[in-house]
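User: I'm new to structure prediction. If I give you an amino acid sequence, what do you actually give back? Let's try with this one:
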Amino acid sequence: MTSNRRVVFYDYDEVALLTDCNFRDLPAGRSEDEELADQPWQSVAENDVFPAEFAHFLGLQGRPREVFVHEHADLFEAATWRSVQAEHRAGVMLFITPYEQGRRLRPGAPSA
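Assistant: Good question. You get back a string of structure tokens that encode the predicted 3D arrangement of the chain. For your 112 residues, that looks like this:
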């Protein structure tokens, strides 16, 4: 969320308003040639986002990648992001914290 209370979505190569994104399921290829093509064979519009492809761009390897994919598999589903969009449009403010309560820094706690 920006300081102007706008929600943005960061894709691996661009920043866009969450509400401008069209989260799509990655369609299955109709043939082996389509599945193995190095270029997209399906139509892709400017604001189309395919969450199923996020895992390719994580930059994680080995065990950290396995854990992330296991714990956050929902982030690779278009339905998850469409749900987030719907909540945002309904005025729901999402509060996401990166750490569980017991691992967060507390005000006044000594730093390491």
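You can read the tokens as a compact description of the fold. Here is one thing that stands out. The longest strand covers residues 8-11.
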